[in-house]
């Protein structure tokens, strides 16, 4: 064995020993990281380890006629060339983890077919457990999964790399680009390659898409802007838009009603009327069965969430302009707001730059957590304490 392959073999043995239960739970995170360890836990609840192949759709809709499909089609020739020349299999999925296209080297073709890594194969986490494509979808960032880090044994001889394709306008994840090969050919360069291809598809999508853009502002003063024009909406209609932004896959009437009203005695006819009026005001931008947004969209609260996910605390604080829908009575939106505020507060206590906190207090003077963190950072004789005391009270 070469030194590189010997190192990979040793890494594989460490992971396999974890899977056999020969290491403590704390060692799981040290060896494979939080993302993999968390995915294993979720996978155990959803997938049998005896699963030998991904479930496969009998028919796949004509995705090539969509803007995303056209963007993918314009980029796959080069991706297929890379896969063939590198002994890999390449794939592009939709936002649900269903493979739309694959291109394969001769050495990987039979392997890919055996496990249904082919168009129509479903590679989301609930279908096959831990894999790079599923992690890229879940965490909305590039991911790699090596050998026994995969949940099902059928692909534990693989190493996979995946990167999400984002709509450059809305930030929505449209799908994933994936490159996979055998574990002994692992190379960090492959992750850079899928990131580059995902960016190319995103750029192609941006040039092809002529759909109107909906922008939601919910942190501070709520507002909806469609194609640069403020759309007058009721608080309930803004809540509906936020729920659809949180569920890009769509919501049926029953789930929408529960998320919006909870146990309140409000009939479904009222909700249907609200959605109908909202659809009219947005020029037909809401689909039905299920309810979903049909336009590119961007929402400040999702931007804030993504900044926190990526650890970009300064960016997150720059996005924040006030509490998310402070008057909402929707049980789902209230729970989401509480979670977001809690995450933001935890992030604030990791800030080491007083200027960042002072800028945040300029936008959110009521941010007690920022004041507390400043009191920890500023020396007792710092002149800033006097200014803070005058402006915000005792620090």
UniProtKB/TrEMBL annotation:
SMART domains: Trans_reg_C (SM00862). InterPro entries: GAF (IPR003018), GAF-like_dom_sf (IPR029016), OmpR/PhoB-type_DNA-bd (IPR001867), Sig_transdc_resp-reg_C-effctor (IPR016032), WH-like_DNA-bd_sf (IPR036388). GO terms for molecular function: DNA binding. Residues 228-293 form the OmpR/PhoB-type domain. GO terms for biological process: phosphorelay signal transduction system; regulation of DNA-templated transcription. Keywords: DNA-binding, Transcription, Transcription regulation. The keyword tRNA-binding does not apply. This is Transcriptional regulator. It comes from Methyloversatilis universalis (strain ATCC BAA-1314 / DSM 25237 / JCM 13912 / CCUG 52030 / FAM5).
């Amino acid at each position: 064995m070469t030194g590189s392959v010997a190192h990979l073999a040793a890494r594989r043995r460490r992971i396999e020993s974890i899977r056999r239960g020969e290491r403590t739970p704390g060692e799981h995170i040290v060896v494979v990281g939080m993302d993999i360890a968390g995915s294993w836990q979720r996978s155990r609840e959803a997938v049998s380890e005896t699963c030998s192949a991904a479930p496969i759709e009998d028919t796949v809709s004509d995705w090539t006629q969509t803007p995303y499909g056209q963007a993918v089609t314009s980029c796959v020739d080069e991706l297929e060339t890379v896969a063939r020349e590198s002994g890999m299999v390449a794939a592009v999925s939709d936002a649900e983890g269903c493979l739309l296209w694959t291109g394969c080297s001769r050495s990987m073709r039979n392997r890919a077919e055996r496990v249904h890594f082919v168009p129509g194969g479903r590679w989301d986490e609930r279908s096959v457990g831990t894999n790079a494509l599923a992690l890229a979808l879940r965490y909305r960032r590039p991911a790699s999964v090596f050998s026994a880090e995969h949940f099902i044994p059928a692909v534990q001889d693989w190493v996979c790399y995946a990167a999400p394709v984002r709509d450059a306008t809305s930030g929505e994840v449209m799908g994933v680009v994936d490159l996979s090969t055998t574990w002994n050919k692992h190379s960090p360069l492959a992750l850079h390659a899928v990131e580059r291809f995902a960016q190319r598809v995103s750029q192609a999508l941006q040039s092809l898409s002529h759909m109107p853009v909906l922008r939601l502002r919910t942190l501070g003063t709520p507002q909806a802007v469609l194609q640069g024009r403020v759309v007058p909406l009721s608080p309930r209609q803004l809540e509906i838009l936020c729920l659809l932004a949180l569920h890009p896959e769509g919501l049926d009437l029953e789930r929408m009603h529960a998320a919006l009203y909870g146990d309140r005695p409000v009939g479904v006819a009222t909700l249907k009327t609200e959605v109908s009026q909202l659809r009219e005001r947005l020029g037909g931008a809401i689909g039905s069965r299920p309810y979903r947004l049909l336009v590119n969209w961007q929402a400040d609260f999702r931007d804030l969430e993504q900044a926190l996910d990526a650890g970009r605390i300064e960016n997150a604080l720059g996005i924040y302009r006030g509490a998310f829908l402070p008057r909402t009575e929707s049980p789902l939106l209230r729970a989401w707001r509480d979670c977001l505020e809690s995450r933001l507060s935890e992030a604030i206590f990791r800030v080491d730059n007083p200027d960042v906190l002072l800028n945040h207090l300029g936008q959110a003077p009521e941010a007690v957590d920022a004041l507390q963190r400043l009191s920890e950072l500023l020396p007792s004789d710092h002149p800033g304490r006097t200014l803070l005391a005058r402006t915000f009270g005792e620090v």
